[in-house]
């Protein structure tokens, strides 16, 4: 896999490049946003620093995302800009200093995620049908009236059947933050989905981890 590393810190770029090559990746490096946007067309994965000398990395990310959906992780010392990067299309982020083993694991996770169809069309679990394009949920053929956000939570879990979605991942994807108020709202929405569908098994809670879609009635 061809990895493009957009990083102006030459020492960090050299260290990351060494670890990536040892892991079997082909690595190209540039220090500038302009070259990063241009070279991304030939990359299978992009690692993007936000503190670049010629252009703010967030602006480079916006430009890149206008013409490419290449898997991309923001690697930055600017922890305060993490959410901005996710909103602009980054698939994940790492805050410096970077641990190479965590970087490799995050890259592999992003590749697995982006390799799947980004949108499930219709999923049936037991007697529950989730129709994503129609934004419709039925139980035994009966329509269930979910709010917009309740449906978004259910659709996110339905897009990854059998997998656990971390609480933080859901909060970032749907709320854009991991604040206590957003976390409490997620709890309420999950409870409402179970109550409105009458299927307590539909969403399984993994204490301390997150949620997954249920497999059906026990």
TrEMBL record:
The keyword Iron does not apply. Residues 2-111 form the Response regulatory domain. InterPro entries: CheY-like_superfamily, OmpR/PhoB-type_DNA-bd, Sig_transdc_resp-reg_receiver, WalR-like, WH-like_DNA-bd_sf. Keywords: DNA-binding, Phosphoprotein, Transcription, Transcription regulation, Two-component regulatory system. The modification 4-aspartylphosphate is found at residue 49. Residues 120-215 form the OmpR/PhoB-type domain. It comes from the Bacteria. Residues 120-215 bind DNA. This is Response regulator transcription factor. It comes from Actinomadura gamaensis.
